[in-house]
Amino acid sequence: MSEKLLERVRELARLWGPSGREQRVHDALKAQIAPFVDEVRTDGFGNLLAVRKGREGGRRVLLSAHMDTPGAIALNVTDKGLIYLAPVGGLKVHHAVGQRVVWGSGALGVLQYEHVEEPKDLSFRKLFCDIGAATKEEALERVSLGDMCTLAGTVEAWGDLVVGPGLDNRLGCAVLLEVAERLGSGPHTVIFAFTAQGEVAPRGAAVAAFGAEPDVAVLVDSAVSGDQPGVRQVATRLGGGPALRLKDSGFMAHHGLAAQIAAAAEAGGIPLQRCVSPTGSEGWTVTPVGPGVPTAVIDIPVRYPGTGGEMADLRDARAAAELLLHFLGLPLNLA
């Protein structure tokens, strides 16, 4: 196990950074990647862009990972100090009940719900956060309306497995840091993009691609693993290596780029899974940017995504970094 990779995942996953409020994650990533690149900047959307210049005649390659996590926003506070919420991103109500959360203000709370007769009647309208306040005034001293909360907790290592909240997609961010540190000189100019608001719409990757004007783009994300009980449409597993996403609800991988990634995996002896995902990705937002961008998505399989107990295998993340390094050393012919 790469201890540095583990520490990067742990450090990034503990940072508060829901969609639209990614500044703390942005600042941490900026400090970590700056020594490995030639230029670091932030665009008007809040994406962090770090550029490693290549040789003349090389391609412009965008490597992207969204840095936000799902959460909830404070809508109203009752006279008894209970905070009612609306979801921000992919937080599901059945995943949220009983979970501890942390607010942007630093306040801690627990998510609970009003009495319902049947589980099917549970909705976000009945979900609230209890921060231990006795009155509305006391609650508002610690949490303002419009403040956001995310699931709280630390990432634990169980051998090669990591378990905790925030792995989607801080794992992808950690992989990009590994690539940046180990890249060295290469033929291509690489633009590392840590994007905002990947959990809502998503939007950040499209803005990053517009500004970067890449010849190709590879997005690194986390996706539900096929070995999670009840997931029958996905043929991936933890420990089987990163997965090349061939298709999802709005995206088709570029055939030439997918073939080059598969060739890089074979040449490097890197296990590569293939998947067709029932859910979406940021791939569909990048592909049509400008004159069109050949795009691929590399998934790191995760069990129980969106919960406080996400589970992934660090070997898959490490193999994803190895795959990208091999890919970046190749001449890119997308015919």
Automatic annotation (TrEMBL):
Which GO BP annotation is one of this protein's? proteolysis
Descriptive protein name? Endo-1,4-beta-glucanase
Family affiliation: Belongs to the peptidase M42 family.
Q: Which InterPro entries match?
A: Peptidase_M42 (IPR008007), Peptidase_M42_aminopept (IPR051464), Peptidase_M42_dom2 (IPR023367)
Give the species this sequence originates from: Symbiobacterium thermophilum (strain DSM 24528 / JCM 14929 / IAM 14863 / T)
Q: Which PANTHER family match?
A: AMINOPEPTIDASE (PTHR32481), AMINOPEPTIDASE YPDE-RELATED (PTHR32481:SF0)
Q: Summarize where Zn(2+) 1 binds, as residue positions.
A: 66, 168, 221
Q: Does the keyword Hydrolase apply?
A: yes
Q: How is the cofactor bound?
A: Binds 2 divalent metal cations per subunit.
Per UniProt, the keywords (alphabetical) are:
Aminopeptidase, Hydrolase, Metal-binding, Protease
The cofactors required by this protein are: a divalent metal cation
